[in-house]
Design goal:
The chain has 20 helices and 25 strands. With 718 residues, it is of the alpha/beta class. The strands form 6 sheets. The protein has a 6-stranded mixed β-sheet, sandwiched between helices. Strands 18, 20, 21, 23, 24 and 25 form a 6-stranded mixed β-sheet that branches. Bound molecules: beta-D-glucopyranose.
Length: 718
């Protein structure tokens, strides 16, 4: 094999300035309001090294052929698309997939999506999206890993390995994609949840909350990083010193930094660049290699070079990084033919369906309404607001919703019951509605967000179920039939009354291309809902931002005392805590143990939970393991997630399940990798969610010395 460094350096040596800048430019079909671009001509001239949003093997093959055979140096293209949660077969949205709490599944779905996309000529995705978010007003919460940095870091690791293979082993294969960790960093903390707004978080919060998933992605070998659109305390991420100081220098990231869409030119609007030349110079000097869809590099870099605002060596270094990525993807060898594959992965299972049904979160099921029996009165389906494509969610790549049919899937899953749609729910009178529902045994009512209400550009000041839907929901509920609400959403939706009166509420998010079958699986009890909330669900809009690991207040909330950290017009606690989610059986955490109960730095300990299935049905649950540093130099959050233990138990069976933790995992998560735990007392807590009353806690002492300590089991009192 040719040595890449000498081959690529020699190639760079033969390039003109225009060809070099061309390698740093990503272009594609422009938005409707902008002038058309002649992609073929740009590629032929060597003026476009990467393209985005062009799909379909024939056209991509044609464009690659132009690059390879008709451009002067024959340099292949990076062909890019947002393959976030599937390519043609669409998995549930990322937030939903996180709810499965299963890193192996996260990896499998990324690998399956990568294989489908690469087979169709795409080589690079802008995923995983790793923005921790604690604000349901922000629509992009749907694309990300939820509120918890530890969980987000696990997710980052799994997704990068899924897209690229371990250590990038699949990059050269016809089944791998170059992954992009985005959006670096803290985009999830936009002011008041408003899209693209400024961000201002402390360095500590940056380190402990927003950076950990990016650090995990870099450790897993991600080959690209995308800076966020936003500014962080006045420094737009596209020209931020963090790209050089932290990402490249401290973390040793040597991959490609690709700007977000148009973000280099937006440095002017941010108020840090005078014009496109200045913007191009700022971004390139900060370390941004590829300018996605802005004119800044193409028009500004030649001038910036002339003016001495950038050095020729900066341009060469960026070009070298882009070419190295192309080399790592095997593009200089010519693209290999596709292997036969589909999104039914190697087990032969329907992976989108498995991922979807495991992502559903059963928020409540007061009267044991679910699963619905195989025999009984007809099932009335009321689903007038969301169309088929609304099952797919905001980044459906090339997935199509045509074949999705909830009514059909329910009819198939309940062969002995009639399933019928109620068309008059919207327009008819109460009398018409009553007569339509007469004789039915249960109503399945799907409510929630349409695709455009979620994702990018979909901040909502009122993250609620639309009034028009609620009005119908109240009329339906008033009929007195047991009503199962299916909630489609990309974020928690506040709906207090509805939560009280529906018999059961199943959050189905945007479940993807097999969402209808997956819903039928769960409603019929073929599978149980296994999802657990990856974000805290507020009672009221005024509680936002909200999450389940705040720092303790000097005056912790006491509902009887006004002068404590609470609201006078809303509960302090959320409606549902992080990790909440019911199954079709109930579990108890009967005992918790930590061995040993005193550890030194560098040692490890084992947390063991005794779990019992209290019901008459086999079920799966997850035990969350949290820590709390009782007293530290800097106050620690009341809960910090450090482990998850999945457990499946037969009816009435009990089992001891455990995990081993290292004492250095008692440290705060650190984006810069320099965190150490402080010796002293820690609580090790475990439960099925972050809800305080359900947690058991045991004291652990971290000390440099070895020796005994007092251990006591008690309830968590945070
Ligand atoms: C989004 C990115 C995305 C890019 C390309 C931008 O608007 O912020 O997440 O990768 O478009 O589609």
């Amino acid at each position: 094999m040719i040595k890449p460094v000498s081959f690529l350096a020699e190639l760079v040596g033969r390039m003109t300035l225009a060809e070099k800048i061309g390698q740093l430019v990503m272009t594609g079909p422009p938005p409707p309001d902008r002038p058309a671009v002649d992609l073929r001509d740009a590629i032929r001239r060597g003026a476009a090294g990467s393209i985005l949003n062009v799909t379909g093997r024939p056209v991509l093959d044609e464009l690659q052929a132009i690059a390879r055979q008709e451009s002067r140096l024959g340099i292949p293209l990076l062909t890019c698309l947002d393959v976030l949660h599937g390519y043609r077969s669409i998995f549930p949205i990322p937030l939903a997939e996180v709810a499965t709490l299963d890193p192996a599944l996260w990896e499998r779905t990324a690998a399956a999506a990568a294989a489908e996309a690469r087979r169709d000529g795409i080589v690079m995705t802008f995923a995983p999206m790793l923005d921790v978010c604690r604000d349901p007003r922000w629509g992009r919460m749907a694309e990300g890993p939820g509120e918890d940095p530890w969980l987000a870091a696990r997710y980052a690791d799994a997704k990068v390995k899924g897209f690229q293979g371990i250590d990038g082993a699949r990059l050269r294969q016809p089944t791998g994609l170059a992954a992009t960790a985005k959006h670096f960093v803290a985009y999830g903390a936009v002011t008041a949840g408003r899209e693209y707004a400024s961000v201002d978080v402390s360095r500590r919060t940056l380190d402990e909350v927003y950076l950990p998933p990016f650090r995990a992605a870099v450790s897993a070998g991600v080959v690209a990083v995308m800076p966020a659109f936003v500014d962080l305390a006045g420094e737009p991420m596209t020209s931020s010193a963090l790209l050089g100081d932290l990402l490249r220098t401290a973390w040793g990231f040597d991959g490609v930094i690709v700007s977000d869409y148009g973000a280099v030119a937006e440095l002017v609007a941010h108020g840090v660049a005078e014009d496109l030349t200045h913007a191009a110079a700022l971004a390139l000097s900060a370390g941004v290699d590829i300018d996605m869809m802005s004119p800044a590099y193409a028009t500004g870099l030649p001038v910036a070079l002339e003016k001495g605002l950038v050095l020729p060596s900066d341009i060469d270094a960026a070009v070298m990084r882009v070419l190295t990525l192309k080399w790592r993807l095997g593009l200089f060898d010519g693209e290999r033919g596709p292997t036969a594959l589909s999104c039914n992965d190697d087990d032969g299972l329907d992976l989108p369906r498995e991922a979807a049904r495991r992502s559903f979160v059963l928020l409540k099921d007061d009267r044991g309404a679910l699963p619905l029996g195989q025999h009984g009165d007809p099932i009335a389906l009321i689903d007038p607001w969301l169309d088929r494509s609304d099952m797919l969610g905001p980044w459906p790549a090339i997935g199509a919703g045509d074949a999705i049919d909830l009514g059909g899937a329910l009819a198939k899953a309940f062969p002995h019951r009639t399933v019928f749609a109620v068309p008059c729910a919207l327009a008819g009178s109460d009398e018409e509605l009553r007569s339509a529902l007469r004789g039915s045994g249960v109503v399945v009512l799907r409510l929630g967000e349409t695709t455009v209400m979620s994702g990018e550009g979909a901040s909502r000041a009122f993250p609620v179920i639309p009034d028009s839907q609620l009005a119908v929901a109240h009329r339906v509920l008033a009929m007195g039939l047991p009503t199962v609400v299916l909630l489609s959403c990309g974020r928690p939706l506040i709906a207090p009354d509805l939560l009280d009166s529906a018999a059961a509420i199943l959050v189905c998010w945007f479940p993807g291309s097999s969402g209808a079958e997956a819903l039928a699986d769960v409603l019929s009890g073929r599978s149980e809902p296994e999802g657990r909330l990856p974000v805290t669900w507020p009672h009221a809009i005024g509680q936002i931002p909200i999450h389940s690991s705040p720092r303790p207040a000097g005056r912790p909330a006491d509902e009887r005392d006004r002068f404590t950290s609470r609201y006078i017009d809303a509960p302090t606690a959320p409606r549902f805590w992080f990790g909440h989610g019911l199954g079709f059986t109930r579990f108890a955490l009967e005992r918790l143990d930590v061995m040993p109960d005193r550890v030194g730095l560098g040692e490890s300990f084992v947390v063991t939970a005794h779990v019992r299935n209290l019901g008459g049905r086999t079920g799966r649950t997850v035990v969350f393991v949290f820590i709390r540093d009782r007293t530290a130099h800097i106050a620690r959050p009341v809960l910090e997630l450090r482990g998850m233990i999945p457990v499946t138990l037969e009816p009435h069976a009990g089992a001891d399940v455990g995990i081993r933790l290292r004492s250095d995992e008692l440290a705060p998560l650190g984006g810069r990798g320099d965190q150490r735990p402080e010796p002293g007392d820690f609580d090790i807590l475990a439960g099925f969610s972050a809800e305080p009353s359900g947690l058991k806690a045991i004291r652990l002492v971290l000390s440099d010395l070895s020796g005994g300590s007092v251990k006591q089991e008690r309830r968590h009192d945070a």
